[in-house]
Structures are given as structure tokens and as C-alpha cells.
């Protein structure tokens, strides 16, 4: 969420946001519940409750009534203490809280993503459902991505090499016990992951620093982000939220990292609705970015990241093919590309050509009229 949230509703049990610099959280390792939601076969009795404020007057009481889903118990769970150094994306009503932190007995900077429903936006949504959904999805994605270092996984070792350094390192899932103003306690889930000192595309754009990066470098970084997304999908993790805020970039080193798997779709999990086609061999290559992104800049249009001379449909089409000319390195296009996306792109190209021709004709006509108009003005002046 990039815009400021609405003012929270008054809650007599709700403390101020606890995720502030200097805060110390004692956390315990936990096994996340399997992911759920419309992309998965339901393995829970979890029901999304719309308009929860009709039954519960405050978010605190709602969170107490519906604690986080429990995963399988761990025999000897690890207990650690983290210290929050700074806020990355925090605020009441902003959803998951993201902070920079470190272990009390270490110095390595980490990122904690804290799925505390009490600080989600309390309006018409089921905040506990959303927090559980995001936590279980993101944890499952990180666990799945950890496995790509193992032999006999999809595309090994090509996937491992293609995604090397392009996703955050995962340090585990934890829970911590938060306390309400009346002393009642409740569990809150969090994930620890690698910290990156370089910015997101979104922050570069909003801070007006886009032009400080050469256009060629910007497009190389965007191309790398497209590749990461394509290889993730080939491996079986559809990140599902390709946006400037989730793309970290280091222009000096050419490094790109894709973040946020809270709404990811994962293939191959026992309860996943996304599985390899029955009776067909699995794909041997990722999808071509042209086909995957339908020849668009994927929410980058108008952001200033893409140079204006690449805005047209023809320029986009030419760029994608020039960037990845060897089509044999990718999956063949599917039915949707041939019957929906490519015709749409072709129509856009033809429409742009027609509009350009119309502008040329109008300019030519205007140029032809100019001498006649000048002659008329001269005659009119003489008559005066």
C-alpha cells in the first residue's frame, strides 16, 4: 500500500505500534500452516468473515477470537531475540510491518516481515484471515525456493544459477507473543529474511532519482527483473505481484532482487490447484518474457523508468525480441498468446501506425495551407 491509510478506529485494548527502533522481540521458531486461499484446495476450516466490525466492535477483540493458524509442532523450537534497528514500511493500517533488525547476539542485518493483523486496516476485511493468508503463502514460497539448491528439482542446476542472488535468503518463520493493554496475550507470526542496502524501483521513482540512472542501465535492470519472474514461474513459484515496490535494484552492480511472495502461487504443493498438465511432459524452459508480460511494461508505463521512446506497442515488441532473440531457449507460446495477446498487440501496433499516419497527413495539409494563408494575409493588408 503506497497511500496513507485511513485513521484507525478507536480501540481501548490496542497499544501503539510496537515495531519501533529499539524494540526487543523474543521470538520462537514455528512451522507455518500450509498455504490456503483460492489458489489452494482448502485444508482448513478457516472462513473469511466479511465486515467483521458488525460482530466485533474493535480489532483487538476480533484478533483474540481468531488467533493465527497453527502449523505442525516443532519438537525443540529455537528461541531467539531480535532488536529492531529501523522501520522500512510500518504504520497502523498498512498491513504487514517490515523492519530492519538483528539478532541480539549478532550483528548481521536482517529484515523482519511481521504479519500482525491488529495493525492491518480494520474496515470491511477479515484482518486475521489476510494476515494468515499472506504469512502462509510467503513462508511456503521461501521454503520451496530453498529446495532449488537440491539435486533432482525442476531445472536443476539451471534454475539455481539463473536465480542466484535474485531472491532474499530465508532465515525462518517465527512467532512472538504480543500483549494488549489489559495484559491479554496473542501470538503474531513473522518471517526473517536477508536485508538489502540498495533501494526499490519505487523509491527511486518517488524520490525523483530516475534520471540519475542512464536509460540503458534502467532497461537492463528491468530486463533482469523480467527474467527473474520468468525463472521463478518455471521453477513453480508465481510471485504474482510484479511491481516497482517489490523490485530492489543496485544500478552500480547491475543486481536485481524480487521481493514479496505474500500472494504467490506455488505449483506442486499437495494442496495446490496449480499443477503440471496431466499426460504431458513438464516444460524444459521458462516462458519468454514477451509472452509472459504480453508485450507490456507490467505497470511500468508512465512511471518514468522506461524511456518515452519505448512506450509504443511496436517499440515494446521490438525491445522484447531484441532482448531475448533466441526463442528456442523458451517455451513455445500458448493458445492465449496466439489467440488473445498477440492479436491485441498487433491491433495496438496497427492503431498506432494509423494514428501516426493521420498526424503526418494533418501536418502535411497544414504545411500546404500555409503559403495560401500568408498570401491572404498580404492581400488583406494591402486592402487596408
Automatic annotation (TrEMBL):
Please report the name of this protein according to its UniProt entry.
Protein kinase domain-containing protein
InterPro entries in alphabetical order:
Kinase-like_dom_sf
The signal sequence is none
Specify residue ranges for compositional bias: Basic and acidic residues. Answer: 351-367
Region labeled Disordered — which residues? 351-384
| Segments of skewed composition (Basic residues) | 368-384
What superkingdom does the record give?
A: Eukaryota
Extract the SUPFAM superfamilies matched here.
Answer: Protein kinase-like (PK-like)
